[in-house]
């Protein structure tokens, strides 16, 4: 039985601890070796326990590209994303890239499949 609601998803996406977890997950993804598509696949597999379908992989690639474009156009927004929460973000990673991956990590951590563990 699914127990999530739109309000639960909204609460999770706005929760500071959940966002800090996404930022930490993004840092782990960015510091791992390998090409970008492999990083996305590992990240997806890490939170869901399975490989992404072709359609899911495409959506992840598009989400990452969209976030990169947004933060490249708005670098101050990237800095705000990385400053959110009490824990300090790594300052060794490029802010635009780090913020983009943070948003993708947040997306992955808020998937219905991740939250409810069907």
Description:
The mean pLDDT is 87. Helices cover 73% and strands 0% of the residues. The longest helix has 20 residues, at 54-73. It is globular, with a radius of gyration of 14 Å. The chain has helices at residues 6-14, 16-30, 36-48, 54-73, 75-83, 95-109, 112-116. α2 (16-30) packs across α6, α4 (54-73) packs across α6 (95-109) and α5 (75-83) packs across α6 (95-109). The relative contact order is 0.21. The protein is mostly helical and 118 residues long.
Secondary structure elements and their pairing?
Blueprint: H1 6-14, H2 16-30, H3 36-48, H4 54-73, H5 75-83, H6 95-109, H7 112-116
Briefly note the structural class of the backbone.
mainly alpha
Unreliable residue stretches: none
Share of residues in helices: over 70%
The fraction of residues in strands falls at under 5%
Mean model confidence by pLDDT: 87
Q: Which sheet architecture does the biggest sheet show?
A: none
Order of helices and strands: HHHHHHH
- How far is the first residue's CA from the last residue's CA? 8 Å
Rounded to the nearest angstrom, the radius of gyration is 14 Å
Number of helix segments? 7
Count of distinct strands: 0
**Based on CA inertia axes, which overall geometry fits?**
globular
Keywords:
single chain; mainly alpha; 118 residues
Give a brief description.
With 118 residues, the protein is an all-alpha fold. Helices cover 73% and strands 0% of the residues.
């Amino acid at each position: 039985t699914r127990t999530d609601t739109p309000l639960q998803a909204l609460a999770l996406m706005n929760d500071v601890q959940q966002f800090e977890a996404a930022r930490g997950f993004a840092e782990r993804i960015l510091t791992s070796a390998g090409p970008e598509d492999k990083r996305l696949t590992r990240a997806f597999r890490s939170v869901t326990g399975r490989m992404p379908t072709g359609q899911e992989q495409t959506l992840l690639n598009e989400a990452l590209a969209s976030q990169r474009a947004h933060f490249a156009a708005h670098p101050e927004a990237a800095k705000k994303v990385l400053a959110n929460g009490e824990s300090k973000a790594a300052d060794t990673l490029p802010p635009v890239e780090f913020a983009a991956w943070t948003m993708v990590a947040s997306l992955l951590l808020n998937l219905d499949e991740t939250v409810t563990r069907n």
